[in-house]
Design goal:
Elements: E1 9-12, E2 19-20, E3 23-24, H1 28-37, E4 41-46, H2 53-62, E5 72-74, H3 75-86, E6 91-95, H4 98-106, E7 110-111, E8 118-121, H5 129-140, E9 145-147, E10 153-156, E11 160-163, H6 165-176, E12 181-182, H7 188-197, E13 206-210, H8 213-223, E14 226-230, H9 237-242, E15 249-251, H10 254-264, E16 272-273
Parallel strand pairs: 1-4, 1-13, 4-5, 6-7, 6-8, 8-9, 9-12, 13-14, 14-15
Antiparallel strand pairs: 2-3, 10-11, 15-16
Helix pairs in contact: 1-10, 3-7, 7-8
Length: about 280
Amino acid sequence: MTDLSKIKCFLLDMDGTVTIGNELLPGAAEFLKYLKESGRDYLFMTNNSSKNSDDYVQKMRGLGIACNPIDVMTSGEATVNYLYSLKPKARVYLMGTPELEKQFLDYKFILTDENPDFVVLGFDKTLTYEKLVIGCDLIRAGVPYIATHPDFNCPMPNDAYIPDCGAMMELIKASTGKMPKVIGKPNREIVESVFRKRCQYKPEEFAMVGDRLYTDVKTGINAGITSILVLSGEATMKDVNESDVKPTYIFKGVGEIYEYLKEKDGIGVSCVVNS
């Protein structure tokens, strides 16, 4: 088991881990500040492909957190990286928001419904019936089909939810009988994009931190890196006990990780460690 104090880059889920809505969770500001002060690093990782990194940079800076585009990885960016590794400047039929379209255009992909090399489904808040008809026709015809992430619902303020990419995948499956290759959490491809973005670190120097077992913790397991569950969001200890997905470490929240690291660094809270 990796000594947590030796981790050099923490990959951080956002909602339920660092933020709740437009507010920081307790201890998050201190935790992020200490990572930088102690020579460590962090990167925000989100499955939300309806926005791009600039949106998250603005959000975190608005909350007083140092953040640049290089400090964010969305499932949309990971999908762009994955497709670029397969075929630069490919022709793509994209079901996504204008923000996701911009990411594809920045990489010189050709967005078209004529003879595309790939069909890509994102968290498309601008989804129309026309888009679905075209996408389903292409998928039935055998065009390779990619989705940015598998989440069924996107959390909103006041414990509300709206349909996310996974729900759209099920709609398309009902029509075509086909499911896509998925890039975002919990799949390894999104972490491989992070490895390229933070190439100065070895895989064993990364840790995935999040509040969901089936996405965040499973991402760490699938990528072969340390996984940390925080109990500040969705998952509970009851969920851990009933799940076959087991994190390496469990903390109440990122504020407790901060206290733990300070103690390990000799500045100092304890956590549950799974063997």
